[in-house]
Amino acid sequence: MTDTATARPVDYSRIFTQAIDRLHAEGRYRVFIDILRNKGAFPNARCFAGHNGPKPITVWCSNDYLAMGQHPKVIAAMEEALHDVGAGSGGTRNIGGNTHYHVDLEAELADLHGKQGALLFTSGYVSNEATLATLAKLLPGCIVFSDELNHASMIAGIRNSGCEKRVFRHNDLAHLEELLAAENPAAPKLIAFESVYSMEGDIAPIAGVCDLADKYNALTYCDEVHAVGMYGPRGGGITEREGLADRITIIEGTLGKAFGVMGGYIAADQTIIDVIRSYAPGFIFTTSLSPVLVAGVLASVRHLKASSVERDGQQAAAATLKAMMAEAGLPVLAGETHIVPLMVGDPVKAKKISDILLAEYGVYVQPINYPTVPRGTERLRFTPGPAHDEAMMRDLTDALVEIWGRLELRKAA
After folding, report:
1. Banded model confidence at residue 1, pLDDT cuts 50, 70, 90
2. Which of the following is catalytic: 55, 73, 165, 257?
3. Active site residue 257
4. What pLDDT score does 358 carry?
5. What is the pLDDT of residues 243-288, one digit of tens each?
6. Rounded distance, CA 145 to CA 257, Å?
7. C-alpha separations of 36 from 44, 47, 320 in Å
């Protein structure tokens, strides 16, 4: 037994300081940039970091892919709700936080995906974690099959379910089937994957996953956070574009990216929605989204169901920027999605490029380092939107070429 009278007291401060020092030593300490966006003028913004007053910058890394956070319909809806019902929701959905805005939005989202119901959460992270943990826990002996590049929130949900997990190689149907075939045919199974992988910019073989789910009697869970609003004739995501939404058990999405506001959700049959609503602690014990936010999302979803102008403009911008970067010899990853990853492969250099772009060129793009991406695959992730014009793209490409030369970085093969 330890003698408490002579034991050295724990130096908590030293432990925490060493943890931060490790991040600095590895070159992956994260710095949040102090900016304000200019309403109605996105991607223009003001940066306050290291300046005497605001400096004009151009934002290249926002997940508000379609600039819907700036859309007049969204802002007007939020202002109207604010003056109609006030700021906050008043509590959890079970107590005082259920409003008519929440009910209407869930109906719109269910319709968007052709499902019986939908359920709102405070974020996409929470919707993934709460749903996967709850669903798998309710299925006795459930085995979850997870793509190796799934988001941290999906991994957390699977871990918190306490179920067996099998990780299949990214988008590898043969490996997935090998893992499925090795398990007891009577065991409940759930395949969890994303439609668009946000750091690679590639798309899952959804039809193939659904075929395997049918063959091995598995449920399917598709994270569409980087696709809802962006793809499909009404913005229902890749599953809508490919006519596969009806084959997916649960579709999960976010309200903070293409829809431009905040929140997350799932869409599924009514029984599954009722189960998650009734059993998930991440839903039950959390104050609901402010009706002001919900009103903004509602306007955004309704607009993007009817308008493809924003989607078309964004896709054109992404294709143009990729072509410019490739022509300039920059190591951009090819792909058909709206994600434009520029590979660096070193956390210190990625941070250095980001710092130079901001300080010298007024370009804001954050470096993406471990654990968001594997070590050695560090990158800059550009998300051009419909308001990024060709002149902005040319200036950006020219700046990157100059910096690549200055830092003697490797160009594309």
Report:
1. low
2. 257
3. yes
4. 94
5. 999 999 999 999 999 999 999 999 999 999 999 999 999 999 999 9
6. 26
7. 9, 7, 27
Spatial separation of the C-alpha atoms in residues 357 and 97, rounded to whole Å: 44
Find tokens 């724990």 and name the residue. Answer: 10
Confirm if 135 and 180 have CB atoms less than 8 A apart: no
| Closest C-alpha to 34, from 57, 64, 65 | 57
DSSP letters spanning 314-381 = HHHHHHHHHHHHHHTT--BPP-SSS-EEEE---HHHHHHHHHHHHHHH-EE--EE-TTTS-TT--EEE
Give the number of other Cβ atoms within 10 Å of residue 3's Cβ.
6
Nearest Cα to Cα of residue 42 among 82, 14, 70, 63: 70
Amino acid at 33: I
Integer Cα distance of 222 and 394 in angstroms = 36
Judge contact between 258 and 238, C-beta under 8 A: no
Coarse DSSP helix, strand, coil percentages of the chain, rounded to the nearest 5 percent: 45, 15, 40
Burial letters for 9-38: b for 16+ Cβ neighbours within 10 Å, e otherwise? eeeeeeeeeeeeeeeeeebbeeeebebebb
Contact 139, 217 (CB under 8 A): no
Before 233, cis peptide (omega within 30)?
no
384-405: pLDDT as tens digits: 999 999 999 999 999 999 999 9
Containing 219, the helix (H) or strand (E) segment is strand 219-223
Burial label, 7 (beta-carbon count in 10 A; 0-12, 13-18, 19+)? exposed
Q: Are 105 and 89 in contact (CB under 8 A)?
A: no
The full DSSP string for 54-68 is -EEEEE---S-TT-G
d(CA 36, CA 224): 28
- List of residues 6+ apart from 260 with CB closer than 8 A: 64, 66, 67, 68, 69, 70, 71, 74, 296, 300
pTM: 0.93
